[in-house]
Amino acid sequence: MHNVPSERGGHLPLPSLGEKSISYGDLLFREIIAIEMLAVVLVCLALVWNAPLEQLADPLHTANPAKAPWYFTGLQELLHYFPPFVAGVILPTLIVLALIVVPFFNVNIKDETLWDRNKSQRLTVLAVIAVALTGLLLRVGAWDAAIPVLTISALMALAALRAGQTTGRFQNWLSAKPLSFWIMTWFLMEAVILTTVGALFRGPGWVWVWPWRNS
C-alpha cells in the first residue's frame, strides 16, 4: 500500500499491485457515450438513406425466399437446420445462461489465467466439446455454424500451448482471456456468420447462391 497526501492533511491509501477496485462508474460512462454516438450515427444514416422496403404484400404471390429482416436471418439460418423449438428457444437460452453462470464459477481472485492449472484436463474437455459439437453440426449440414466452433477451438488450443511462455503479444493476449470471453466471442462469430450467410447467400428454396450472380 502507498499513501498520497490529501487536501485535509492526511494520507489516502492507494491500492497495491494486483488488488482489484470497482470501476463500473467509468465503464457506464464510456458505454453511455458509445450509445449516444451510435444513436447519432443511426439517425444520420436514416436521414440520408431510405429503408429498402419492397412492394405491398400479396397473399397470392409469396416471395421466394421469404426472408426475415437481416437481423433475424441468422435465426432463420438455424431454422434451416434445426427444429423451431431447438433453434429459437433451446440454443439461445443455453448461450445466455452460459454467459450468466460462467463468471460465478470463475471468479479468478488470484489473477490466474484459464490455463494456469489443470491444462491437460481442460484441453481434453475442450477437445471433446469441440469434436462433439462439430460432429453434430456437420451431421445436420450446418457447416457454416461449425466454422466458429473450429476457429475458437483452435485459438483456445493455441492460447493453452503458449501459456506461461515468452511469446508475442497476440499469444499472451489470448492466454490471458477468461472462459466467458471465449463463449461470448463464439456467440458473436456464430451471429455474424449465420446472419451473413442467411442475408446474402441464400436464394429460392433456401439454397446456396452467390450474391453477384443471378439466381
Chart the SSEs and their pairings.
Layout: E1 2-5, E2 11-14, H1 24-48, H2 73-81, H3 84-105, H4 119-139, H5 143-162, H6 169-175, H7 179-200
Antiparallel strand pairs: 1-2
Helix pairs in contact: 2-3, 2-7, 3-7, 4-5, 5-6, 5-7
Structural class: mainly alpha
- Whole-number average pLDDT? 82
Bulk shape: globular
pLDDT under 50 segments (min length 5)? none
How many distinct helices?
7
- How helical, in percent, are the residues? 55-70%
Total number of β-strand segments?
Answer: 2
**Beta-strand residue percentage:** under 5%
Order of helices and strands: EEHHHHHHH
Quote the distance from N terminus to C terminus: 68 Å
Radius of gyration: 24 Å
Largest sheet strand order:
1-2
Q: Strand count, sense and closure of the main sheet?
A: 2 strands, antiparallel
Summarize the structure.
The protein is mainly α.
Structure description:
The chain has 215 residues and is mainly alpha-helical. The protein has a domain of 141 residues. The protein contains 7 helices and 2 strands. It has a two-stranded antiparallel sheet. A hairpin with a 5-residue loop joins strand 1 and strand 2. Helix 3 runs antiparallel to helix 7. The longest helix is centred in the N-terminal third of the chain and has 25 residues. The chain is globular, with a radius of gyration of 24 Å. The N and C termini lie far apart (68 Å). The mean pLDDT is 82.
